[in-house]
Amino acid sequence: MNDIPLAGTAPKAELKWVGTRGPRPDGLDKVTGRARYGADFRLPGMLVGRVLRSPHAHARIRGIDISKAAALPGVKAIVTRDDFRDMPSEFVPAGEMMVNYRDIVRNVMAREKALYEGHPVAAVAATSASIAREALSLIKVDYEVLPHVIDAAEAMRADAPLLDETMITAGVDPAPTKPSNVAKRMEFSTGDLKAGFAQADFVIERSFATKPVHQGYLEPHACLASVNEAGQAELWCTTQGHFVVRTHCAKLLDMEMSQIRVIATEIGGGFGGKTVVYLEPLALALSSKSKRPVKMVMTREEVFLSTGPTSGAHMKVKIGVRKDGKITAAEAELIYEAGAFQGSPVGPGCMCAFAPYEIENARVIGYDVISNRPKVAAYRAPGAPISEYAVECVIDELAQKLGLDPVEFRLKNGAKAGTRALYGPKFGPIGLVATLEAAKNHPHYSAPLGPNQGRGVASGFWFNIGGESCASLHINEDGSVTLMIGTPDIGGSRASMALMAAETLGIDVAHVRTLIADTDSIGYTFLTGGSRATFATGMATVDAAKAAIRQLCARAAKIWEISEDAVVWEDGHAKPAGQNAATFPPMSLAELAGKAGKTGGPISGHAEINAQGAGPSFGTHIVDVEVDKETGRVDIKRYTVIQDAGKAVHPGYVEGQFQGGAAQGVGWALNEEYVYGADGKLQNAGFLDYRMPVTSDLPMIDTVIVEIPNPAHPFGVRGVGETPIVPPMAAIANAISRAIGTRLCELPMSPPKVLKAMQAHKANGG
Amino acid sequence: MSKRHVSAVVNGDPVEFLCTPEQTLLDVLRDDLDLTGSKECCSSGDCGACSVILDGRLVCSCLVLSAEAEGKRIETIEGMAKGEELHPLQRRFLEHAALQCGICTPGILIAAKALLEREPDPSETEVRFWLAGNLCRCTGYDKIVRAVLDTAAEMRRS
Amino acid sequence: MARVVLGPNLRRFTDGVDELEIDAATIQQLLAKLGALYPKLGPHLERGLAVAINGTIYQGTVLAPIPPDAEVFLLPPIEGG
Questions:
Q1: Chain C residues contacting A, CB < 8 Å?
Q2: A268 at interface of C, judged by CB pairs closer than 8 A
Q3: A468 contact residues in C (CB cutoff 8 A)
Q4: In whole angstroms, what is the distance from residue C66 CA to residue C54 CA?
Q5: Looking at the domain that runs over B4-79, which CATH code has it been given?
Q6: Are C23 and C17 spatial neighbours (Cβ–Cβ below 8 Å)?
Q7: Which of A68, A388, A429, A560 is the most buried (most CB within 10 A)?
Q8: What residues of A are in contact with residue B129 (Cβ under 8 Å)?
């Protein structure tokens, strides 16, 4: 097929739509309350589903008696572990991921043991919420309460209670003979560590700890399932990936994928937390048993107790540097909590730890540790914010030790095109240096500071991913365009897709409407995550538009009775080219659409791709804090996010990603944490006590979009959604240390901890 | 459990409903009156996603018992636009890209409307403290605060 | 011949070898040859890997071409949030 020259894809071409800030297709429905989220759907005859959850952090389940609950009038179905087939412990492909269904089936419904407070033990469907609640109270679970362990460092001790008596640490030679809570050890290394440290004039080694933090999406998990007598299912749910939901539900419930249609509702935030299944298999199972639609919605408490936060961690970081400011060696040990089942993001944590720097000699060792907490789920650049927080704090301390400006120190050692990352490959074109230069030249960086204030900077890296995406683009009879994609829209991606389609087609974006198709209406599309939607689905969208253009050109060729090769597409019109140039007046997309029926039938373009070549995104944040000497309270006075977007398709929503990531980072740095009692129970499962930043906690968040194009994408797009949460914790820690003259190495830096650090510093003559 | 009969005015229209004593106003709005624009995200008054105006006062409808609505006037997000014409706040939120996932948007718009009715010329600090009861996890609030300040300026001009 | 680097996590299955030269035109051919050379490595190759070819990371695909003299790294798969 001939490649049609397209205005939008030529290098440095003028872009008409990509890079503009138009309205989003779903905006109107979201400001009028019309948009329908997970809990906004209902069906005739619908039942209410609720979950009975373990009150214990760790307990053997000796028996479950549902007889009294089942006899309660209005109860239509109950499911327990007996309703789910056990699965072998093996990693198998699930769409694009490798997952262990032995663990997933146990997380969805406890089997031998309840492994955390809030672990589902049974689920009920009843005609009303009050009957469902009463039914839960009538289910008798015979628990043998076991000793529990919450913290990873304690879980690694030889005498720690074992969650899984069969768990042998992987990645260790020879394999341990005894089980432990350590699921896996991993290592990444390059160069000669010993020689590297020998060259150093200064070496700083510090230990850090972080607490689990929740994504904090405002919309609780919710779904509505309807299964008929033939086993055909419809499922409405709030998810980052409805195809992934289908994959998991089909596997857990022994259903064929073709029997499950999953409709992604509008999603009220995800940040990685809605990439897994919790309620969906239970609702399908309850509906299958009752033959009635079943709706399930979590309470906020359930969201905190039972869904995945990201890992808490214990880390050691050691970096050596020469007097001239060149880093000679770096070493880190990372212990990440996985929650009740293996699979913390310690792998990417290891790979990202030193990624912003050119370091010849480095080693990172990671441990994936299970404990009696909810299984972690992805949270924005999973793993990276934790390890990079620790590294960026040590980098800052080294800069202080050397008497160097922290941005200059980073520039001296920063990764650029051709730098070999610790995990192996060399970077292509990347934007770290550009973000550091922008930071240096930003008025924020040289603005004066007030008393008790400090300024911190930190950089961050995230890979971004590509993967499978489909797009289906229909040219309607009137020349308007319907674009169907399979990645749920979390932050405005429908607008970005419409802009890319309009740019490629050469038509006004107002004529393009983007819809999220259900699993039956478009080909397999991996989830919205890994900052991949605008990159991968964007590529599919451009390909689909090109496919439609090829047909439009072919129709014009037929009308003009010239060869297809002699038609080009320019600015939304088919034009005769070559020797036929100017022989016929150009035909617009709308004209060709109007003649589609007579010239061969409807015109659509579609693309099914596995996008490769995702471009890493680097960012640098600057933050000013003021520390209250009386209380230890930290006030964010000024904040600037600088990040390489590759190309900002809709700058408004790119800025929004930058600002939102920074705000989540402020919460992670200053307030948010899971607080457990000695009984292993979560003590702050609500928004009052799990303190996310509110409007009055934050200043305006300034943004600078750097654009170093990703050569693999037609418009140069890198992902932007995840990197913004990587630098804030270290930037804020560095700012606090410069304000109070001493360092905190533990998150969150809540007022009591800051006050204690200041008092200790004072006692030591600081 | 016997149900109680309640008459109220919602977005200018008279409504009647039967409610149980434990049902919240949010339950009735969403489940009985099909007004799902008010969102339930915490059920404890911490997030503001269910904000409505009850007889001129901004409240979390998850903290109001439905029986308390007797004889009251309730304004929800569904009544904010007047026919085809969006409220200036709704328009400015779209122009400023002041929403991402949008789940907090109805509550924030209602809260901001209540603010501007009370204080047509709020400072940034006043906006931030007034909206401190409305959580947003996506935006970092920057564009929301700008949209509210911009709307206030526009409404003062007209 | 491509220069293939396995890294410390995989060299446990290759009797300590973590770098070798392999003649392969695609990821598929590379993985097949590696699996044949080191049978213990096979299951770990099937568990899903990312493959960096001259700096570009490929994931979930076996057809990406490997240019002659390419530098190839086998990496753990990368997921996102």
A1: 5, 7-9, 12, 47-48, 52, 54-61, 64, 71, 73, 75-81
A2: no
A3: 60
A4: 9
A5: 3.10.20.30
A6: no
A7: A388
A8: 695-696
From chain A, pick out residues whose CB is under 8 angstroms from the CB of B95.
Answer: 23
- Distance (Å, whole) CA A82 – CA A112: 11
Please give the angle made by the CA atoms of A107, A109 and A115, to the nearest 5 degrees: 55
Q: Give ∠ CA A301-A307-A311 in degrees, rounded to 5.
A: 115
Residues A684 and A682: their CA atoms lie apart, in Å, by 6
Q: Please enumerate, as own/partner, the contacts of A756-761 that have beta carbons within 8 Å and a separation of 24 or more.
A: A756/A632, A757/A632, A758/A627, A758/A629, A758/A632
Of A582, A485, A531, A527, give the one whose Cα is nearest residue A247: A527
Q: Is the pLDDT at C47 greater than 90, yes or no? A: no
| Contact of C61 with A467, CB cutoff 8 Å | no
For B88-157, CATH number? Answer: 1.10.150.120
What single string gives the DSSP state of each residue in A178-241?
S--SEEEEEEEEES-HHHHHHT-SEEEEEEEEE-------SSPPEEEEEE-TT--EEEEE--S-
User: What is the number of CB-based contacts under 8 A between chain A and chain C?
Assistant: 105
**What is the assigned CATH class of domain C2-75?**
alpha beta
Task: Please give the CATH topology (third level) of the domain spanning A7-35+466-611.
Answer: Aldehyde Oxidoreductase; domain 4 (3.30.365)
Q: Is A556:A562 a contact under the CB 8 Å cutoff?
A: no
Q: Considering the entire predicted model, what is its pTM?
A: 0.97
The reported pLDDT for the residue numbered A577 is: 92
pLDDT value of residue A579: 84
> A656 vs B44: CB contact, 8 Å cut-off?
no
Averages of pLDDT over runs of 10 residues in chain A (766 residues) are 39 83 94 98 98 98 98 98 95 78 98 98 97 98 98 97 97 94 96 97 98 98 98 98 97 97 98 97 98 98 97 98 98 98 96 97 98 97 97 98 98 96 93 98 98 98 95 98 97 96 98 97 96 97 98 97 95 92 93 97 98 95 98 98 98 98 98 97 98 98 97 96 98 98 98 97 90
* Weakly modelled stretches of chain B, pLDDT under 50: none
The domain locations on chain A are 7-35+466-611, 383-464+615-763
Query: What does DSSP assign to residue A17?
Result: S
ipTM field: 0.98
Residue C77: list chain A partners with CB under 8 A.
Answer: 97-98
Ranges for all domains in chain B classified under CATH 3.10.20.30: 4-79
Chains with ≥3 CB–CB distances under 8 Å to A: B, C
Domain spans in chain C, listed from the N-terminal domain onward:
2-75
- Decide: helix, strand or coil at residue A555: helix
For the record, the structure tokens of A745 come out as 């190495």
Give the whole-angstrom CA distance, residue A352 versus residue A381: 10
Q: B touches A (3+ CB pairs < 8 Å)?
A: yes
* Whole-number Å distance between alpha carbons of A700 and A695: 10
- Structure-token pair, residue A307: 């869904």
Do C79 and A348 make contact, defined as CB atoms within 8 angstroms? yes
Q: Is B102 on the interface with A (CB under 8 A)?
A: yes
CB-CB contact of A658 with A728 (8 Å): no
| Vertex B47 angle, CA B41 and B52, to 5° | 90
A96 in C contact zone (CB under 8 Å): yes
Quote the pLDDT of residue A281. 98
